[in-house]
Write a structure and sequence with these properties.
The chain is α/β, with parallel strands linked by helices. It contains 13 helices and seven strands. The strands form two sheets. A five-stranded mixed β-sheet has the order 3-2-1-4-5, with helices on both faces.
C-alpha cells in the first residue's frame, strides 16, 4: 500500500505526518532536523522506495529535498503561498495541522505549484552567485556611504569614482577631507575586504561554469550579455526542458504584465515580478545596450521608447531578450540578428514581433 508523508521543517525539530492511500493516518510525531533524524524516520516507518514526501518551501527545504532524494524517496516541494491559500482553517496555523493538510493534499493531488529542485551543479552555481551578489552589495554600500558623508559636509566634488584601491587611497589622502579621514578609511577598508571576496568568488564561478561552458559562451554572443548575466540565466532556469515555450520563461522570470480580465472589465498593470529579481535586474541592464544604434535590437528600442518612455522600453526589451536567450539555449544556436526580422518558412511577418525590418533583397536593393 502506498504511503504519503509530510514534513514541516524547522530549525531544530521537524513535525511529520504519514497517511495511507485511503487517507488514514498511520503515524505522526517529531524528529530532529538533521540527516540522522530523517534517516531514522525512514527506517522507523519502513518507508518504501519512491514514497512521496511533501514539504513547504523554506530556508532548509532545498537541502532536505536533496537528502531525501539520496535516500531514494520522492520529495515534493510545494510553494508555501499555495499551502496558505488552500488551508482549511484560515488563521489557525499549527505545525501539526500544516503537516496534516500537506500530506492530504499530496495524496489527493491538489497542489499545482511544485518547486523544481535542480541538481548539485546548478545549486553550487546558485550559491556562488548569491554570495557574490552579497559582497557586491557591500561594496556598493560603502561607496554610497562615503559619498553621502562627503556631500553632507559640502565636499561632494571630492567624491570621484571609488571603484579601485587607488581611488580610495587618493580620496583618503586629500587635504580637503582632513576631518573625515578616519571614517573614510573605515569605509575603504571594508570595501577592500569585500572586493577581495568578490574576486575570490569570481574564480570559483569560473570553475562552477565548466559544465555549462558552451551554453554560457552561446548566450554571450548576444550584445550586452556578459558572463554574470549568462551564468545567472543558467542558474535560474537550470534546464530549458522545464519550459514548453519562451512565453512561459518570461512568466517564470516575472517580466509579463499583470492581468485582470473578468466580464466587461480588462485591466493590465505592472509586471508580476515573480521569480528571480536578480535575473530581472541583469536582463534589464543588458536591455539598455539596445539604445545603441549598433545593437541588433535598436529598431525594437526606437519603436517603443518615444511612446512608452525609457523605463517601460527597458522592460519590454528585457522581455524580448529573455525569450531570445531561451530560444538560443533550447536550439543550441548562437545569436543570429537575421532571425529577428522575418519568418523564412512562410515569408509572412509575425504580428507578435515588436518591430519589422525587411532585408535588402526584399526591398529591391541590389548589393
Amino acid at each position: 500500500m502506498a504511503l504519503y508523508i509530510e514534513l514541516d521543517v524547522h530549525g531544530k525539530e521537524t513535525v511529520y505526518v504519514a497517511r495511507d492511500e485511503s487517507g488514514k493516518m498511520t503515524a505522526q510525531g517529531k524528529v530532529a532536523t538533521s540527516a540522522e533524524g530523517f534517516c531514522e524516520l525512514v527506517e522507523t516507518l519502513e518507508t518504501p522506495k519512491g514514497t512521496k514526501i511533501g514539504l513547504e518551501t523554506g530556508t532548509q527545504a532545498m537541502w532536505v529535498s536533496r537528502l531525501l532524494s539520496g535516500l531514494e524517496m520522492e520529495p515534493v516541494m510545494i510553494d508555501a503561498r499555495e499551502v496558505r491559500q488552500k488551508a482549511r482553517r484560515i488563521g489557525q496555523k499549527s505545525d501539526r495541522r500544516d503537516a496534516f493538510e500537506i500530506c492530504d493534499g499530496i495524496r489527493r493531488g491538489i497542489y499545482t505549484t511544485i518547486v523544481y529542485v535542480p541538481d548539485a551543479r546548478v545549486l553550487r552555481l546558485r550559491q556562488i552567485l548569491s554570495r557574490r551578489r552579497h559582497f557586491v552589495k557591500i561594496c556598493t554600500r560603502q561607496i554610497n556611504a562615503a559619498k553621502w558623508l562627503l556631500r553632507s559636509l559640502g565636499l561632494g566634488r571630492e567624491a570621484a569614482s571609488l571603484t579601485s584601491v587607488g581611488a580610495w587611497e587618493t580620496l583618503v589622502g586629500r587635504p580637503a577631507v582632513e576631518g573625515l579621514r578616519d571614517h573614510l578609511a573605515m569605509h575603504a577598508d571594508l570595501w577592500r575586504l569585500a572586493q577581495e571576496k568578490v574576486v575570490l568568488l569570481e574564480k570559483q564561478l569560473r570553475e562552477a561554469l565548466k559544465p555549462f561552458q558552451e551554453t554560457v559562451r552561446r548566450l554571450q554572443t548576444v550584445p550586452g550579455v556578459g558572463i554574470i548575466t549568462a551564468a545567472t540565466y543558467v542558474a535560474v532556469l537550470a534546464t530549458p526542458e522545464r519550459f514548453p515555450d519562451s512565453s512561459r520563461v518570461a512568466s517564470y522570470i516575472g517580466l509579463v504584465p499583470s492581468t485582470y480580465d473578468t466580464g466587461n472589465m480588462q485591466r493590465h498593470g505592472h509586471i508580476t515580478k515573480r521569480g528571480s529579481g536578480e535575473l530581472r535586474a541583469m536582463l534589464c541592464e543588458a536591455a539598455q545596450h539596445a539604445a545603441s544604434k549598433r545593437h541588433p535590437l535598436n529598431p525594437h528600442w526606437v519603436r517603443f521608447c518615444p511612446k512608452q518612455g525609457y523605463k517601460k522600453t527597458v522592460i519590454i526589451t528585457a522581455h524580448r531578450l529573455a525569450r531570445i536567450l531561451f530560444a538560443m539555449w533550447r536550439k543550441g544556436e548562437d545569436f543570429d540578428p537575421s532571425k529577428l526580422n522575418v519568418v523564412p518558412e512562410q515569408g509572412v511577418y509575425r504580428k507578435k514581433y515588436y518591430w519589422i525590418m525587411k532585408r535588402p533583397e526584399e526591398q529591391g536593393v541590389v548589393a
